[in-house]
Design a protein that fits this description.
Two copies of one chain form a homodimer. Chain A is an alpha/beta fold. In chain A, 41% of the residues lie in helices and 13% in strands. In chain A, the strands form three sheets. Chain A has a seven-stranded mixed sheet with strand order 2-8-7-6-5-3-4, with helices on both faces. In chain A, α7 links the parallel β3 and β4. In chain A, α5 packs parallel to α12 and α6 packs parallel to α7. Chain A is globular and about 60 Å long. Chains A and B meet through α1, α4, α6, α11 and α12 of A and α1, α4, α6, α11 and α12 of B.
Chain lengths: 398, 398
């Protein structure tokens, strides 16, 4: 390999980077969770537990995997760019219209389509602090302004760190074209209920798109939890995004869908890559959609695991953020990056919500994906070993 | 299904569409080739031959398919967003550096990344007439201006409808940030040789990115045909895109790669979706890369088929555009859309380069993917049945 290939052209490289759009240059790329392979290599470990990316600990929908295995794939043929069969299955399952559906290469793709069709310099997007990182990235990539609204305070009696809908409403101005809201929210797990969401949607100007990101909504089992797909019928400015990456267990394949008014769908389709969803993803998602046993089992295992971890942390006197999702966010009391490092050496990967310095907010919180009972016990045991040492070291050095 | 879901909100829909960016509203979405299923349904046909999307008629790389079949998929786990293993294989195969590679959800994704990082209102992109449709779509979606340079004239002695590099050079102005050039070009099959391309690259200002789209380059076997991956070492402003959708036979999976200066790669990574390439695509592409027998066989079958069709059309007195790719573009003498319709009723799908009216340029040309010998004979026979009728009808009605 010619290692010096670019060494003489550092100056040209700087010039070329300088030609990129200012607001693109300013982006800090998304940091993905460490792949297990990379961690194994780095630490010489073999038995690694990854509870960092909110993947389904029960695996993929068996119906999806079996259906894929049974197919002739014809990998040389382009996918159906219109997603006819998957859309028909979604229509059937959720009582929708095909003209009100856009398919995405994961829901990330759908969030970006909204940004590309509706945001540009001079416009802005409103969302809560501690929201999904892609809202900021997708907005910044268009040159639009990011308006981050402070979340409810840590001492809030029912929803610490939750989205503050009245404040978000006040943040909407004449340049606001998109509001992003995840329900439940990632990385906190917090949520807004039916009444609060409806009141919010009634108050948002009808010219502002509200993107309701329901990536984790299938895990929720509460009568007062809103169903975005129903609300879409009432609010033409509502865009609901869902994903097959979480409860359906198909993160590897990249497929999500958005439901919106057909006039909005037509705009998103203009910035959609013609073959954005791959063929195997289309087949697997269609099969997973009907895998009711797997969904029910996943929901039940998650509910049990979430309750177990909530109680375990309560017993230990560690505060958790209220969650309805497949993860729990815990205050560890020291900068999250330090806890992440220590757990990594135990072979356990979690998601630190801050770096190695306490910067307030949720920088001393870690997010743990709910696993199987054995996995949940392992992460707890690892924390029980690691935290006293770290807190002791912190105490000792102060 | 609630069919009246949106019927009361047509007005709201118009308002919401009106909120999209002007230049997004102005886009005519890409029209994908008709899926075989759709044609079969529409015409009640069973034995359909699709030579419309330049798919590999020999199927997918067997090594790719076998490797995929042999794997535990773990579909619940996110893909490696950094594409470590595939990049390592590309480094090995093409003598590259990992920091000089970006992976894409098909090369379409890569073309869009360039547009999003380097184009915006007030900037422009230069490309030839009769270029790949995505160059215009990707440019328009950013609000940048499309500068289409007339191609070489139909009567050009060696390269009718080819890219006119000197004219493209003259079209570059202070607002030009990107030049798109496909080699060989789709949908014409025309090409530029080593000397002409090098002279062009030397003359382009070093601040302008040249995107050399080599989607079909693996089919070419000529000593004077340039290798973009070698030229990248010499020209830091060169971005080469390649795809696994064509000769590797993996169109279903969506995977391509770009090679560029690391400083440019860093900009493209900022607008790349973190998990843009799916897990099965990463595995399959890595395996296909080493499937030398399949590549050699595909190249050979294509060369034989291309020669066969070129001679067949010459015998019939029908002009073809010079092609080095896996398709041939033929002047049918009547509007392409009419020929498309007639062939569809014969169960043969090709790509019409115009609609139902002769608008000059290549509107009376059809593009035919080179198939197996039997497939090539079938499309010829269908044309032999259909064209005399259409030409007769045209003669009779005038």
């Amino acid at each position: 390999m010619n290692n010096s290939q670019w060494s003489d052209s550092a100056h040209e490289g700087e010039i070329l980077a300088g030609q990129a759009l200012d607001y693109v240059r300013a982006i800090s790329p998304y940091v993905t969770g460490k792949p297990i392979d990379a961690v194994a290599r780095e630490f010489g470990l073999t038995d690694i537990l990854k509870l960092a990316s909110n993947e389904n600990p029960l695996g993929a929908s068996p119906r999806a995997t079996e259906t894929l295995r049974a197919q002739n794939w014809d990998l040389n043929i382009y996918p159906d760019g219109g997603g006819y069969a998957l859309k028909a299955a979604l229509v059937q399952q959720f009582d929708l219209e095909p003209s009100g559906i856009v398919l995405g290469n994961g829901s990330n793709d759908l969030l970006e389509m909204v940004a590309r069709a509706y945001l540009a310099p001079g416009r802005n997007a409103v969302f809560s602090a501690y929201a999904f990182a892609v809202y900021a990235l997708a907005t910044q990539a268009t040159g639009a302004q990011v308006k981050v609204v402070p979340a409810l305070p840590p001492e809030h009696p029912t929803m610490p760190f939750g989205a503050d809908l009245p404040s978000m409403l006040r943040a909407i101005d004449a340049e606001t074209h998109v509001v992003f809201l995840a329900n439940p929210n990632n990385p906190t797990g917090t949520w807004v209920d039916q009444d609060a969401l409806e009141a919010f949607l009634r108050a948002v100007p009808p010219t502002v798109l509200v993107v309701l990101d329901e990536a984790y909504s299938e895990y929720v089992d509460r009568p007062d939890f809103p169903d975005g797909l129903m609300l879409c019928r009432q609010f033409p400015n509502l865009v609901v995004t869902r994903t097959f990456s979480k409860i359906y267990g198909l993160a590897a394949l990249r497929v999500g869908f958005a439901v919106a008014h057909p006039a909005v769908v037509a705009m998103l389709d203009r910035v959609r890559q013609p073959f954005n969803v791959n063929h195997l993803a289309l087949i697997a998602a269609e099969a997973a959609l009907q895998d009711e046993d797997f969904l029910a089992h996943s929901r039940q295992v998650n509910a049990v695991g979430l309750r177990f971890l909530q109680q375990a942390f309560q017993t230990r006197g560690m505060a958790t953020i209220p969650s309805l999702a497949n993860f729990i966010t815990v205050l560890v009391g020291i900068p999250a990056g330090i806890v992440f490092d220590a757990l990594l050496r135990e072979g356990v990967i979690i998601r630190p919500l801050g770096g190695r310095v306490d910067t307030g907010g949720i920088s001393c919180h870690i997010r743990i994906t709910i696993g199987t009972q054995a996995q949940n016990e392992r992460v707890l045991a690892a924390l029980d070993r690691v935290l006293p040492q770290l807190l002791g070291a912190k105490g000792g050095s102060s």
